[in-house]
Amino acid sequence: MTIEKTLSIIKPDAVQNKHIGNIIKRFESNGLTIEKMMMKHLSQEEASEFYAIHKERPFFNDLIEFMTSGNVVIIVLSGENAVSKNRKLMGHTDPEQAEKGTIRSDFAKSIDANAVHGSDSLENAAIEIGFFFTSCCRR
Ligand code: ADP
Ligand code: MG
Question: CB burial class (10 A; 0-12, 13-18, 19+) of residue 29?
Fold first, then answer.
């Protein structure tokens, strides 16, 4: 059994639409445990650094504007195969292509406002968890 940790972010659209409880319910009822959680309004700098990997993409500016448009909920999840399990629960990046019953299919409306972020690998999960949680009191 491989117990992993991964990072989830409930994005501003899902917070605004009052889906925090629904999304956390999906995690908990599918064997994931909430290890850490905080609500935060990301600064431009934080969002740009977090999504630095996408900075050459055409949608980068819109992504940063959206991610800083309201509060997000940043969550460390743990559980068996947590990284891939979370990605499966999230569904496809584009809610219109997401499988029925996934978070993005049920709670998101568009590819840019798609309810949740989830780490895409164990390596990125460690980096992303460290970004928000490890260095005490910096952010
Ligand atoms: P995922 O969140 O599924 O891992 P990516 O890492 O590819 O997807 O992209 C990061 C985020 O950037 C997406 O969740 C989405 O909000 C946004 N995004 C990705 N592709 C597009 C696109 N073609 N148009 C607008 N926004 C996009
Ligand atoms: Mg991604």
Answer: exposed
